[in-house]
Specification:
461 residues; globular; Ald_DH/histidinol_DH; Aldehyde_DH_dom; Aldehyde Dehydrogenase, Chain A, domain 1; oxidoreductase; binds nicotinamide-adenine-dinucleotide; Ald_DH_C; 7-stranded mixed sheet; 2 domains
């Protein structure tokens, strides 16, 4: 198991000591991992900054093939990566295997995009001159990732950054640094040159990230995490006008309209709610259900939730956060709702109904296995309630009338909609939010654009 920093192609201890990583299912210590200090940060930025022009000058086909090899390296070690994710993050093995496949697919997708970076030739309206556009890499990118998808959140950033010709310094979340270090090994084994991918681990991100954003050699910040931290980082990025992509918090509404196929809605709800045991930014946070179908939907959802085995949350703070919101929700608990004793950080699948619209469960992202049900009289009220939040990442809509579903989708303030579908994540799709859920898109054709800027040459001939 790799526990050291990965800088400029070599492994080294952290200059600020080490920190413990715990197994969420037992609270036992798994490993002591290097804590990067400011001199490690300087080494990493220097390595990335030195490697960047050389990497940007490699043939697109070569960057593509190296990314493709990294994809193959991940697939070859799929079981090992999944086992490590289970150990440090606590998700089920099935969820972990699905994550590794999803994560690897970002490398394959962006390997295919690396050879499609192009420019344009335009004729000025006067006819007197020509406008030539080029797409160029932004430069050194600082990548900050959360703990809930330790592999996929990293590859969703590293894939497009490398395809574009950027070099990176990745700082994974303190709960899940081991997966990122294993990925560094896979990139190195794939032949990615020294300095192109650097990984710094720490349990004290504030100081390190503040220093990184104060360094003018860092030209890009891609952050996935909470809106609260994202806001602070946007402020810090302003000092050197750093290009920012922000994938922030969600509070996804899941609309079940009067003409929904309730069984299909329950199946979609289970996917949208319980993938990753509720610890996803795309997790359905508010089930907004038409009063004509709410009793059928609720009883079927309770049955489905009751069949899910209890699993750990990532840490004890997460359990406190979920339990605190359920206890003060003002709703009626139909299933679960009580902390579980024993080692590790467990909380059971929970369903709360008759929840007031202004309940903490409806206002805040619960990030756990809690289904909150709000009842509405009609579709207009459902849309109004769905939009009544500062977040706008994803929304889900269930109706058997596709035209109606599309019209409702257009009215939802969200970056993504799952229409009769409980899963929106796809490496080929533009993932991202509106309002305080973020800036920019990851994946799809859009994902690589976040790491490119446009330059143009004016000329005449
Ligand atoms: P978090 O904001 O606490 O941490 C995210 C990252 O920021 C971690 O790497 C952490 O070490 C770092 N960080 C924390 N405090 C920092 C500081 N003061 N300065 C600099 N860096 C700091 O979020 P989390 O708890 O790890 O993740 C959960 C949140 O992430 C949820 O809100 C979830 O919705 C969001 N999320 C969003 C997406 C998306 O794509 N929109 C995906 C996954 C998770």
């Amino acid at each position: 198991m790799r526990t050291d920093l990965f800088v400029d192609g070599t492994w080294s201890a952290g200059s600020a000591g080490s920190f413990d990583v715990l197994d969420p299912s037992s609270a036992a210590r798994i490993a002591a991992v290097a804590r990067a200090g400011l001199d490690d940060l300087d080494r990493a930025i220097t390595a990335a900054h030195t490697a960047q022009p050389l990497w940007a000058a490699t043939a697109p086909r070569e960057r593509s093939e190296l990314l493709r090899r990294a994809f193959e390296g991940m697939i070859a070690r799929r079981d090992e990566i999944a086992a490590l994710i289970v150990r440090e993050m606590g998700k089920s093995q099935a969820d972990a295997l699905a994550e590794v496949t999803y994560a690897a697919e970002f490398l394959r997708w962006f390997a295919e995009e690396a050879v499609r970076i192009d420019g344009e030739l335009r004729v000025a309206p006067s006819g007197a001159n020509r406008i030539l556009t080029f797409r160029r890499p932004v430069g050194v990118a600082l990548l900050l990732t959360p703990w809930n998808f330790p592999a996929a959140m990293a590859t969703r950033k590293i894939g497009p950054a490398l395809a574009a010709g950027c070099t990176v310094v990745l700082k994974p979340a303190e709960d899940t640094p081991l997966t990122a270090l294993l990925l560094a090994e896979i990139f190195a084994n794939a032949g990615i040159p020294d300095g192109v991918v650097n990984v710094l681990t720490t349990d004290q991100p504030g100081e390190l990230v503040t220093a990184a954003l104060a360094d003018p050699r860092v030209r890009k910040l891609s952050f996935t995490g909470s809106t609260q931290v994202g806001r602070v980082l946007l402020g810090q990025a302003a000092a050197h006008v750093v290009n920012c992509s922000m994938e922030l918090g969600g509070n996804a509404p899941f609309l079940v309209l009067d003409d929904a196929d309730v069984d299909a809605a329950v199946a979609g709800a289970m996917l949208a709610k319980m993938r990753n045991y509720g610890q996803a930014c795309t997790a359905a946070n508010r089930f907004i259900v038409d009063s004509s179908v709410v009793s059928e939907f609720t009883s079927k959802l309770v049955d489905a939730m009751a069949s899910v085995p209890s699993a750990p949350l990532v840490n004890s703070r997460a359990v406190d956060g979920v339990a605190g919101r359920v206890d003060s929700s003002g709703g009626r608990v139909l299933l679960g709702g009580k902390r579980e004793s024993g080692p590790g950080f467990h909380y059971p699948p929970t369903v709360v109904t008759d929840v007031p619209y202004d309940s903490v469960l409806a206002r805040e992202e619960v990030f756990g296995p809690v289904a909150t049900i709000l009842t509405v009289p009609d579709a207009d009220a459902a849309v109004a309630l769905a939009n009544s939040t500062e977040m706008g990442l994803v929304a889900y809509v269930y109706t058997q009338d596709l035209g109606r579903g599309l019209r409702i989708s257009e009215r939802l303030e969200a970056g993504m909609v799952g229409l009769n579908r409980g899963l929106v994540s796809d490496p080929a799709a533009p993932f991202g939010g509106v309002k305080e859920s973020g800036l920019g898109r990851e994946g799809g054709y859009e994902g690589i654009q976040e790491y490119l800027e446009t330059m143009y040459v004016a000329t005449s001939w």
